[in-house]
Amino acid sequence: LSRALATATVVVMRPLAPLALGVGVAYAIARNLASRAPKRGQKLARGASASSASSSSATTHARCPADDARAPKPPTCERKPHVVKFGAVEGEFRGDNAMNPARERVDDLFWLRDDERKDPRVLEYLTAENAYTEAHTAHLKALETKVYDEIIAGIEETDEDVRFAWGDFEYFVRTKKGAAYPIVCRVERGSKTVETVLDVNAVAKDMRYCSLGGFKPSPTHDVLAYAIDDTGYETYTVRFKDLTSGDMLEDVLSGVAGGVSWGGGVNREVYYATFDDAHRPDKVWRHIMGTPQADDVCVLEEKDECFNVGFGRSSSGRFMTLESESTETNEVYLIDLESEASQQPKLVQARRTGHRYYLEHRGDRFFVLTNKDGRINFDLLMTPTIDDVSQEHWVPLVDSTNAPTFTFDDKRTLESFFACKDHLIIDGRENGFSAIWVLRFNPLNERVEEWHKTVWPSENALVYPSVAGETLRCVGANQVWDTSKIYVSYSSLVSPRTVYLYDMNTKDAKPVKTTPVKGFDSSKYTTMRLEITARDGVKVPVSIAYRTDKRTHKGPLLLEGYGSYGISNDPAFMRTAVPLMDRGIAIAVAHIRGGGELGRDWYEKMGKYTTKMNTFHDFIDVAESLVATGWTQPSSLAITGRSAGGLLMGAVLNMRPDLFRCVVAGVPFVDVLTSMCDPSIPLTTGEWLEWGNPNEEVYYEYMSQYSPMENITSSAKPDVLITAGLHDPRVAYWEAAKYAARLRESVTNGSRVLLKTDLSAGHFSASDRYQHYKQTAFEHAFTLDALGLCGDVRPTWDK
User: Fold this and answer.
1) What is the pTM of this model?
2) Catalytic residues
3) 47's torsion region: left (phi>0), alpha (psi -120 to 50) or beta?
């Protein structure tokens, strides 16, 4: 999944999920183991916002402009001309059709790039930007604290998630009041003694950042392999814990791409992946426990810079699946872990441009999700045996009458699947909504006895096979092979996550755990789905939620979007949005093209390469419609997006600065041309199959139309908050730093352009849950202030 893949196998992608409003995108990423016609705003009087031409029902005051003589001054960003070349450059791989001679642009802020993150000049500048942001938001500290307290008050800080069977144990995740990280525990069946498998708080004790990227007990459950990233750069160290004695083993694997999986033998083999110099996962290794990492065997190497490697063990436990994948093409290899004959990977089907396929083992055959024959939303096929696995052997599934069943339906998108002894569970989408299908097999003849789509309280929600917990998404909760019951999670914008135990035979769904949100009464909130007609006639879905008694005509609204990589931004509950809804802000999620909400066409044919402008137009058209229909007005409209959603923010801000009152752009991918031309920047080459390669003329011209950095013009603008992480490998901190400096100098109406860089985190903000909530509270306070919803609270210089 390019830069979005964040699973137990490997972590690969640049612009990632918006985490501010819901877990929909975050789940979509974890689930797949493996998306211009600007109207310039008129100049307004100094101190007015770009959208203040419309009246607002909020309590507002004439705020002193950010460039007033009394206001704190922004840091001076030195200019040093640097030539950036687009096209052929000697000694670099710039693509097969790179322009020659190369085109040139001058980037006078290029000096802000420091690959080592140690340059004193750069750190001093980022610190000065943080101080400037602090000075311009100091008057909001009381509000920020209040919002943070409301978030914490709604959390059951000491809690225990669903207990799920795994081997001879029941595993579960605990959180404790005051503890920032999860504690993974287990109970042996028949016992009441609780064992602590891994206390991440103890692991993180001396770390400023701690992210758990892999968690795998051995098949005998007496050794734990776990991966830790202590910088935010998403390079992990794998360590091994003896779960009988509690001691750490001597084996340590460094420079790992996040995931780890046990191979053949009893606690004997471990598989993992490593990076090349551009932070691209390019090799899969087999490690023999008790031996040095230097002796490990490389079982798969991918030399094509547009491809990443990944791996994972089949649900049956018999096969290790290795994969090399770009955003458009892949090929899969198998290792039979029960075979004594050979441990060499067996190629299933050689790569063919545009063909993607995925395998799952069950019984004496493999099941295959494939997009061959133009079936862009994927078809489900099977192999006749475990030996005849190449494409010519793939055949449809059949029922008891030998007739094809669960046949291809273009309204249905199949995204991932896993097997149990007598069932196959498929995760995907239908008619724009997330969905799960279950197929039941006759154990005697392996034919499909019955299949059905599971039914849940509402379609306009997120439904998915459960993970171990909200704080441990790298572990699935369905670890039992011989079972007829699975855990499924459900949530909507106004329904906290509920885990159901779903009986695949009877279709009975029993709720076993609802994430507690203290003080939240879902009956007081309303959610709905709208359809907006875009400028080209396409219907764009929008999910909306609000507190029923607080909604006002033309009232405040926060519109969020993503629209890239084919990732669906599903309407899922996020407790941190409650303080906004309780203050009368409606929450809206625009399911724009470039995402995967309406199938792969929504992304591959309508929202990438030279159709990418649809993504930005859709978002603007949604915003305009919400204004035209009285949901909000420009002076009450806030927008937010993270990563590729930050690119969305930058693009629409350039196109329609008059349409919004404030913008929160999280780790924004805004220096598109400069980042995408340079193969030395982590993961860039793989992204050429997402955005296009600006070293080629056709993409250079097209991407130049929307790249936020190149399209900034002087105008009245809304208030803008930009966040970044110093150690972010997906969207480098210097993109946000350069963008803030350029955007600030283009403002003609005194609006704030603030940059906040977390100097100890990466792409996902703070790993400490309390610090993460504080960051969210800060962003909420900024938004409430911009919308005039914090009363007559002013900076000290504005009194």
Assistant:
1) 0.93
2) 643, 728, 763
3) left
